[in-house]
Amino acid sequence: MKALIIGSGIAGIATAIRLAVQGHQVEVFEANSYPGGKLSEFEQDGFRFDAGPSLFTMPQYVDELFTLAGKNPKDFFCYQKLDKVCRYFYEDGTQLNAYADTEQFAAEVSNVTGEPVASVKKYLANSATIYNITNHVFLEQSLHRLKTFLSRDTAKSVLGLPGIDAFRTMHKANAGYFKDDRLVQFYDRYATYNGSNPYAAPATLNVIPHLEQHYGAYFPVGGMFSITSSLVKLAESLGVIFHYNSKADEILLDDLKATGLKVAGNVINGDVIISNMDVWFTYQRLLKSYPGLFPKRILGQERSSSALIFYWGISRRFPELDLHNIFFSTDYKAEFDHIWKDKNIFHDPTIYLNISCKYKPDDAPGRCENWFTMINVPANVGQEWDTLIATARENILKKLTRILGDDIESLIVSETMLDPRRIQTKTSSYQGSLYGTSSNSRFAAFLRHANKSSKIENLYFCGGSVHPGGGIPLCLLSAKIVSGWIADDFSPTS
Predict the structure, then answer these.
(1) What are phi and psi of 383, to 5 degrees?
(2) How would DSSP label each residue in 422-475?
(3) Residue 166 CB-density burial (10 A; 0-12 exposed, 13-18 middle, 19+ buried)
(4) What does the pLDDT look like over 18-36, one tens digit per residue?
(5) Hey, which residues does 314 pair with through a beta bridge?
(6) CA distance 373 to 380
(7) 132 to each of 201, 211, 323, 479, how far by Cα in Å?
(8) Is the pTM of this model over 0.85?
(9) pLDDT tens digits for 480-494?
(10) Best CA proximity match to 306, nearest among 440, 207, 424
(11) Residue 387 CB neighbour total at 10 angstroms
């Protein structure tokens, strides 16, 4: 069987590996000159930056791909566990270290905020409960296959559904666990891990802290892009062919059956087509001649938030900063209202600052640091971005200067920027949204596009815009779901 994959994001690469292991012929068509989609890198003025995702969790899903291919993961891809996941800065001067060790973290929270250690442990136990209920059914299997609902694991999960806390918002649940507003804000922030709003998203998303606290956070030895580069190398060793600068123009159909792609005017025939492109653009660009086949309700869903990122080369080192750093807003509710209701940027945004040279020194020259400086912003719906960006840059610099006690702008020796418009252009993410649709309703996470078309035979989907969602771990799981579905559909007995 010949499989054609549109896009070499992390899900597309992982799907290619899994299908090659199954013995299929696989070709990947990538519009850019490089692989990885959002998980890419660039160099400028002697600084190296990971362009997109900077937090690495659930490394077992990457290791699994090497194991499936009969390789030792450590021969190709290495990473180290972080003792401290992130350092948090509050405007009142509070600093909180999120330690990987639960006992150490609970003690830190208690010392800083006065919240009892038992409260932190109770919260994390609830997070684990949500994970145990949802993992086998929602994360690792398709919700659109009958076989999923005939398993014993599904029956257990259905019986446990009241435990996923779907009828409260994340914020309401967090405020119910803790009295200290700083800790409530700490846990509300996890909504941003899938581009949602903690004041609207269901408390089911409080599963996310378990993934980070229980499984840990890691730093790939070669930086985040080494995830992409090592998996591409593995895929190529299995015979996968990558075509770069090869934008797919159309998915070819014959009587509602996908039969190939049109790329630069050439017809490429295939037995199955897998789109790793945002599902919105898959339909609007590649299937535009078939509007009657569009899943209009899904394509009309609210998109996730986007990001504004400044990549700064900084001419001094800051020992008080870590790999991951958060500088919180003083009014979190107002910040999210600006993003979701007003579709603009709050004057006091929460800032995420990633400095990979803390663990990979050659990412910055001399005594410099490479700052990946990001704030959450709304998806692109036609805002006056140049004005918003200029104001946001000024506010970010004022905030960092005030908290760190140094004139940050005077230290910038290299600068580039990524905004929602360029995110859409570079990664075909509709409106520049980072995670496809948002999860700002009770069951939005369960209403994502399926990993297989219900109307077009032999057309499948992987990546952050479809089930089970965005972020590296879920994208890798989408590849697992798709490859399993294809294996069943093309087995001798199917």
Answers:
(1) -65, 165
(2) HHHHHH--GGG-SSSB---STTGGGSSBPSB-SSSBTEEE-STTBTT-SSHHHH
(3) middle
(4) 999 999 999 999 999 999 9
(5) 369, 412
(6) 19
(7) 20, 11, 30, 21
(8) yes
(9) 999 999 999 987 654
(10) 424
(11) 10
